[in-house]
Write a structure and sequence with these properties.
302 residues; mainly beta; Beta-galactosidase, Chain A, domain 5; globular
Length: 302
């Protein structure tokens, strides 16, 4: 009997090891390639993070000061999709404000970024942010067996200024931007936005919609630009976040090209974990729902 148990344990362990080995480790790289407007930039870096399920390219740039414009930072997400959802023409998919200071006002340099890999085969990049003494660490990473780009904001050990208020803003354009017959962009009155959460279906609304802890994720889509054919956009994108430390989360989803999720954190927070998803391939709303249902493990926050 003991030998049978040992054999059973050995077989299970072998299968488990094979399953783990099947998940390729995450790879993170840092580069300094050409980007649009490079002659006006004082800093530019591409952080690419990839595994076998997905890949993301985060661009961190700082513009030089101009006559009536101080230096400013932008966070761009140009891969895996060049247009739509979290990518262009939206330039700042991620924004962070601490004590009334925007991340755009900060100064970044080579020492600000650090690549890392963990023993669990996750990998990513850390970005140090200093809001006049309120120091935070912004970590972008992927995990094996996950299709998400994870973000983690935590208070740095050497932070010396009390955080009085902190706000995270994620901007997105579900599926596509509408244009008229002459190619002119339609910024409003041309959309049918929806957000599917574990709790409910939210329709576009002129008023900000307050989310509940049960709204643990958002499938963001459009029923006009449903990704079902060419010209119908890229299909849904996805956001998930941990409500621990969240004071309030508001979804701004009007009949407009640009939508946003605004998350106000408790000033006493220690860390905040969120994640997003987009893909190089287009999915119809129906196709994504099936893909999501059949591959839930790829979309787990924890």
């Amino acid at each position: 009997m003991n030998q049978l148990r040992l054999l059973f344990f050995a077989v299970c362990l072998s299968v488990l090891c094979q399953l783990r080995a099947a998940e390729s480790p995450v790879r993170a790289s840092l580069s300094k390639p050409w980007v649009w407007g490079v002659e006006k930039l004082s800093f530019r870096r591409h952080v690419q993070i990839a595994n076998q399920h997905n890949f993301y390219r985060l661009d961190l740039v700082q513009w030089q000061a101009e006559k009536n414009q101080p230096p400013k930072i932008n966070f761009w997400l140009h891969e895996p999709k060049a247009y739509g959802n979290f990518s262009r023409p939206i330039m700042d998919f991620f924004q962070l404000q601490v004590n009334g200071i925007s991340e755009r006002q900060l100064y970044i340099h080579d020492e600000t970024l650090r690549l890392w890999e963990n023993s669990d085969n996750s990998a990513g990049a850390d970005i140090q942010l200093n809001f006049n003494g309120a120091k935070l660490l912004l970590r972008w990473f992927m995990r094996p067996g996950s299709a998400l780009l994870h973000g983690l904001i935590s208070v740095a050990p050497d932070s010396s200024t009390v955080i009085k208020d902190i706000m995270v803003k994620l901007q997105f354009m579900p599926s596509a931007i509408a244009k008229d017959d002459n190619g002119k962009v339609l910024y409003g009155n041309a959309y049918a936005r929806q957000a599917i959460t574990p709790l409910r279906l939210l329709q576009q609304n002129k008023q900000a919609q307050v989310l509940q802890p049960e709204d643990a994720y958002l499938i963001l889509q459009d029923t006009i630009f449903d990704g079902s054919s060419e010209g119908k956009g890229a299909g849904p994108c996805y956001i998930s976040f941990d409500y621990q430390g969240v004071q309030q989360a508001r979804l701004n989803m009007d009949n407009s090209w640009l939508c946003s999720l605004i998350i106000e954190l408790d000033p006493a927070f220690k860390s905040f974990h969120f994640a997003l998803w987009q893909h190089k391939n287009s999915f119809s709303n129906q196709e994504f729902q099936q893909y999501f249902t059949e591959n839930r493990s790829l979309f787990q926050l924890h």
